[in-house]
Design brief:
two-stranded antiparallel ribbon, single chain, 7 helices, Rossmann fold, about 25% strand
């Protein structure tokens, strides 16, 4: 079985998650970064995993577009969906629900809420200012949960 992991990452958290999933999954696994890569034809892939991260309470626009453009094809595949985020509990679930259409969420055999990061080294001045003001965080925070990535890979397999 061959798997395509389609992701978008602004500061690297979703990319780290995609790379870790690639290591954990069996078979041939390809990566597609929506920021830099052209999306390949999806038909040859048996499995598709899509993931992004939350910025200003929303998943990146390119992930929304990917899900919209390839909606019918995604419904025909073994599907997994993940999200990198800094919220917890109900807020994290709401962000996940807002990120992906309901029918894709229902079709997915694995859902992942992997935690997230505020990496001040990778943020521009404006992004740092917003994080400091809104999240009340003044230095880098790393809360990516590798055990949740491992659990996702196990559930997907």
């Amino acid at each position: 079985m061959n798997t395509l992991i389609v992701y978008i990452s602004s500061h690297g958290c979703a990319e780290k998650s995609a790379m870790k999933l690639k290591q954990l999954l069996q078979g041939e696994v390809s990566l597609c970064n929506l920021k830099t890569d052209k999306v390949p034809r999806l038909e040859p892939f048996n499995n598709i995993i899509a993931g992004g991260s939350i910025h200003a309470s929303k998943v990146q626009k390119k992930m929304k577009e990917f899900c919209m453009i390839h909606h019918e094809t995604l419904l025909q595949k073994k599907l997994g969906l993940f999200l990198c985020h800094m919220e917890e509990g109900e807020k994290a679930m709401k962000q996940f629900d807002d990120a992906y259409p309901e029918d894709l969420r229902n079709k997915a055999i694995a859902h992942g809420l992997f935690g997230g990061e505020f990496d001040f080294e990778k943020m521009n001045f404006f992004e740092k200012l917003i994080v400091k003001k809104v999240a009340k965080i003044t230095e880098s925070v790393f809360r990516l949960d590798e055990s949740k990535i491992q659990e996702f890979a196990k559930n997907f397999s």
